Amino acid sequence: MAEAYIVGAVRTPVGKKKGGLSTVHPTDLAAHTLKALIERTGVDPAAVDDVIMGCVMQFGPQSMDIARNAWLSAGLPETVAGVTIDRQCGSSQQSIHFAAQGVMSGTQDLVVAAGVESMSIVPMGSSISAAFEKGMPLPFGEGWAARYGKQEISQFRGAELMCEKWGFTREELEQYAYESHQRAAKAIANGYFRDQIAPIAGVEDDEGPRPDTTLEKMAALKTLKEDGKITAATSSQISDGSGAVLIASEAAVKAHGLTPRARIVTLALMGDDPVYMLTAPIPATRKAFERSGLSIDDIDVIEINEAFAPVPLAWMKEIGADHARTNPNGGAIALGHPLGGTGAILMTKLLHELERTGGRYGLQTMCEGGGQANVTIIERL
């Protein structure tokens, strides 16, 4: 099978809700990242075979195939097609998988894998709310109800169920969240993200981290559920942002004079209990290790999306991962989670951290709606 290489990765800063990016149209937000990717890699944009973009709320300003619209908004060639995909929070990590698979199959040579979400402009749940207002049924039909019953299906309930299953205390969750903010603040202060970010709308740094937060402040917050353990402090932030990665074949590397920065080692995908919803990174990671022949001891840098604090805590416990190598520069609790954009943003962070530290292998995984997870292992070159 042909190799797939990462030759470029860039992202916007992640803006907080109603922050510096909140008035940027999502198509323009994505277009900015696409343009920066092409400029930084120096590739001929007309040679790109496809633009695959993740976006969860494909509604209103994010509808009508935002991948195609963003490419055209960036002033890039009309001859290049674009497609928008939804695998919930893992949408743009799946974009990377599809791009790599196109190259590995030998049917494509240059593919852009990207993602975007403006949660300030298109709030989470917009499409469901609009359907509900028009009297349309919810996404779960009779077959679903027969299988799982009429029970609450939500990420918030899933996070609470994980706390119960793994026995996490509220204090443990808040200690983890505090560490995420401290790591993110340190990374920003030290300029770790500077080379990977394409500033936009006057915003140069991620807006989410709160370096002055304390455990006492977190303890004073109300839980999202009565008698629960999850609070806003131990949940990912509502955010705006975009990321883009360029995947190339060996032939494209030679033809366009590109520099391979990492090799795609393994792509894995698994589903798990959709009621728990957030646990699939655990079996998906085990599958990735089985396929690659690697183990957790081989992985130098890990990026697991911090949808809620129990997600990385349970994953580390089950996989035996070292917290020092897991989200070393903070995660979504501090840096934010712009849904469809997060997968490409995490890959950008992962690649740059491997390059900064000289690590060899990096692993990325995310929990996704429906009880799914992607895992990507890369090797720095």
UniProtKB/TrEMBL annotation:
It comes from the Bacteria. Residues 5-250 form the Thiolase N-terminal domain. Keywords: Acyltransferase, Transferase. Pfam families: Thiolase_C, Thiolase_N. PROSITE patterns: THIOLASE_2 (PS00737). The keyword Isomerase does not apply. GO terms for molecular function: acetyl-CoA C-acetyltransferase activity. The active site is at 89 (acyl-thioester intermediate), 337 (proton acceptor), 367 (proton acceptor). The keyword Transferase applies. Its EC number is 2.3.1.9. Residues 259-380 form the Thiolase C-terminal domain. Belongs to the thiolase-like superfamily. Thiolase family. This is Acetyl-CoA C-acetyltransferase.
